[in-house]
Write a structure and sequence with these properties.
Layout: E1 4-5, H1 14-25, E2 38-42, H2 84-92, E3 113-115, H3 137-155, H4 157-165, E4 168-172, H5 175-182, H6 189-193, H7 196-216, E5 222-225, H8 234-240, H9 248-272, E6 277-280, H10 282-291, E7 306-307, E8 322-323, E9 351-355, H11 397-405, E10 426-428, H12 450-468, H13 470-478, E11 481-485, H14 488-495, H15 502-506, H16 509-529, E12 535-538, H17 547-553, H18 561-585, E13 590-593, H19 595-604, E14 619-620, E15 635-636, H20 653-665, E16 671-672, H21 676-684
Parallel strand pairs: 1-6, 2-3, 2-4, 4-5, 5-6, 9-10, 9-11, 11-12, 12-13
Antiparallel strand pairs: 7-8, 13-16, 14-15
Helix pairs in contact: 1-2, 1-21, 3-4, 7-9, 11-20, 12-13, 16-18, 19-20
Length: about 675
């Protein structure tokens, strides 16, 4: 049976990024960055610029298209900025796929995949004839076959076939067959030939042939989008609406077509004996923000940002069109296509972060402490190329979870910018150097210990209540996603800090681990009392394998024995404790994140993930660059992407991306009892 991704609570195209996408790859182990290509087929909703190279009327290569794209220039995308394939690539941590017709698509760029989509096309060959020269769907599939020949020449036939078989594929068809064919004028050839239900059934039968050909060409993981609510786009409102209501006939068509598509995909998957095709219910996704735009920060879902005539819904967007000054508050960019923000809208869920330096977004910048990351070269690969307080060369785990969810990054709670509407996003309370225990990190002086972080969470809720009211604030906290990362410092910056420590004299390693678990339980219960209902709880990484421990204790480059023993004891005990807590609470509140297994993958086989080393830190000094922290005087590698560790303790941004991808889609080896994509699906139904 295909997975049908749909949302009844507020959540929109971000579902494609963080849920449908993760469902497709959810059963796979974490993969190297270069492991999966991405191919795109379809119409203007997903065209990245192929029509720029054709003599056609279906073009988006002139301003104001692309006004919010990174280059602020038109690219051929029918958007003010990024489109759905761009955002999927971004969520995967990969570069955007190039249009197949682009002369830049050659050499190593072929490994990323390709975008074959062409604005104006449909399932049927007679759809879009008014646009002249466009790449009809079977021509796109023929180009896919030619692409594979080019890829075979580059990497060999066997590797090329494997790359295609393991690729992610997105196909978007159907909308044009209705709006640019059946409903194009009051009387059309297809209207005379078919009733709406009969036409829908005919489209489904033809779409099935397209999908089977895609399967024959090697596609094995395919996201298949339905149509949006066709009668509600500004173009249809301008042409057919009565009093601003969605146009009746196109809406009827969409309501018939989408369930039939799901049924057809079910049958195909049963016939093939595998969930090759995943149905993506874009109608329900768009219905959310069309019928409740204010919940997503939009002022309107009826009026296009760029256009002319009623609802700005006549023609396409041109330099002479009406143009709104702020695209972020419009659901539709032009008469047919969503704005860049609409695919990412996720107003439903806040995100809160607690813990140590692995997840601190800059709180320690506001404290008098030795645990700081506010000087270069920290932040060298952050978008601003400046230090932010993150213990990373760039983005950290909370940033990447926010990115995967399509939401903005949570600010540090101590940041003066955290006020007003920014409070709705959530907050990051983490502070580098802290642990489960209060005596962990005393050498760092002033840090926000965990129960202090929880006090600040309580104060945050009072501020949120003042902004949106107590009931709405409580609901926002209850429905939030929470991440907590603790435990590593209790070992490396407490128990193992010196050959003899107070905690070593007090406890054996197993007894200390059990003590930590009992104290961690109290923290999690307090978090629950404060309203948290979905909490990702990370274990420790492989403590003996970080460059700092290699520098201090390693024999012949092997992971240090005692810290590894501690991690192997602590992590299973944490999972067991979380199970018990969930049983006691009668709900899967706490989700165990096995970061030890996640990091073991690339620590013990770095080359499979594109790293040259997992022993040597990119930035540091001494053996393995593992002594002290990263400073302006440290050794610094020129390419952070080929190092698993940024400094003696913390992963690089690229390693963090692998970890977050596994949080989203990992099996129960890594995520217990479920991964984040499953959480998002389950919670969307509540």
């Amino acid at each position: 049976m295909p997975t049908l991704v749909t949302m009844s609570s507020p959540s929109v195209f971000v579902t494609i990024l963080a849920v449908a996408l993760a469902v497709v790859i959810g059963t796979l182990a974490p993969q190297a960055e270069a492991a999966r290509a991405f191919f795109v087929f379809g119409d203007s909703l997903v065209d990245n610029g192929n029509n720029n190279y054709l003599v056609t009327y279906a073009r988006a290569d002139a301003p104001p298209y692309g006004i919010d794209y990174p280059t602020h220039r038109p690219t051929g995308r029918f958007s003010n900025g990024l489109n759905i394939p761009d955002l999927i690539s971004e969520a995967l941590g990969s570069e955007p796929t190039l249009p197949y017709l682009s002369p830049q698509l050659n050499g190593q760029r072929l490994l990323v995949g390709a975008n074959f989509a062409s604005a104006g096309i449909g399932i049927l060959n007679d759809t879009g004839i008014q646009f002249a020269n466009i790449l009809r769907i079977f021509q796109q599939l023929e180009l896919f076959r030619l692409y594979q020949l080019r890829l075979s020449s580059l990497i060999g036939p066997s590797a090329a076939q494997q790359r295609v078989n393991s690729a992610l594929v997105l196909i978007t068809l159907g909308g044009n067959d209705f709006v640019n064919n059946y409903f194009l004028t009051p009387v059309t050839a297809r209207r005379l030939q078919f009733t709406i239900p009969a036409f829908s059934s005919y489209l489904i039968s033809e779409y099935r042939k397209v999908l089977m050909r895609l399967y024959e060409l090697g596609a094995r993981r395919v996201l298949v989008t339905g149509t949006g609510p066709l009668g509600c786009v500004p173009a249809e409102l301008a042409m057919r609406s009565i009093n601003g209501e969605c146009a009746v006939e196109p809406q009827q068509a969409a309501r018939i077509f989408n369930p039939e598509l799901v049924q057809m995909l079910r049958g195909l998957n049963q016939e093939l004996g595998s969930d090759v095709f995943v149905g993506v219910n874009t109608m329900e996704m768009q219905n959310d923000f069309i019928h409740n735009p204010q919940a997503y920060g939009f002022v309107t879902s009826k009026l296009a940002c760029c256009g002319q005539g009623p609802y700005n819904g006549v023609g396409l967007c041109t330099i002479a069109s009406n143009l709104c000054p702020n695209r972020d508050i419009y659901a539709f960019w032009d008469p047919f296509h969503p704005s860049t923000l609409a695919p990412q809208a996720e107003a439903a869920r806040a995100f809160f972060v607690f813990g140590d330096s692995l997840v601190d977004n800059g709180n320690n910048n506001y404290l008098v402490t030795y645990a700081r990351a506010d000087a270069p070269p920290y932040g060298i690969d952050y978008p601003t190329h400046r230090p932010t307080g993150r213990f990373s060369n760039g983005l950290n785990i909370p940033d990447l979870i926010s990115e995967a969810l399509g939401s903005e990054t949570t600010l540090p709670y101590l940041s003066p910018e955290l006020n007003g509407q920014r409070l709705l996003v959530g907050a990051n309370f983490a502070s580098a150097g802290i642990g489960i225990l209060n005596d962990t990190g005393i050498q760092f002086a002033n840090i926000i210990r965990i129960f202090k972080q929880l006090e600040l969470f309580q104060l945050y809720q009072l501020r949120l209540s003042a902004l949106i009211g107590p009931a709405a604030a409580q609901q926002r906290v209850n429905s939030a996603l929470v991440l907590i990362t603790l435990g590593g410092n209790d070992f490396v910056n407490n128990y193992f800090l010196a050959p003899i420590t107070a905690r070593r004299l007090q406890f054996t390693i197993p007894a200390f681990s059990s003590y930590l678990i009992s104290e961690y339980r109290k923290i999690l219960m307090r978090l629950y009392e404060l309203g948290a209902r979905r909490v990702l709880v990370t274990g420790t990484g492989p403590l003996g394998c970080v460059p700092a421990e290699l520098a201090m204790r390693s024999i012949n480059g092997e992971c240090a024995v005692e810290p590894q023993q501690a991690a192997r004891i602590f992590n299973p005990e944490l999972v067991q404790m979380l199970r018990g807590l969930n049983q006691e609470l009668g709900s899967d509140v706490f989700v165990g994140v096995n970061t030890m297994e996640m990091q073991n993958d690339f620590i013990h086989n770095p080359q499979a993930y594109g790293f040259v080393t997992s022993k040597l830190a990119c930035c540091g000094q001494g053996p393995y660059n593992g002594v002290g922290l990263c400073t302006i005087a440290s050794n610094l590698c020129p390419n952070r992407d080929i190092y698993a560790f940024w400094d003696p303790f913390h992963p690089t941004e690229r390693a963090n991306r692998i970890i977050v991808r596994t949080i989203l889609s990992g099996s129960d080896k890594y995520m217990n009892p479920m991964n984040l994509s499953t959480i998002m699906i389950m919670d969307s139904k509540n």
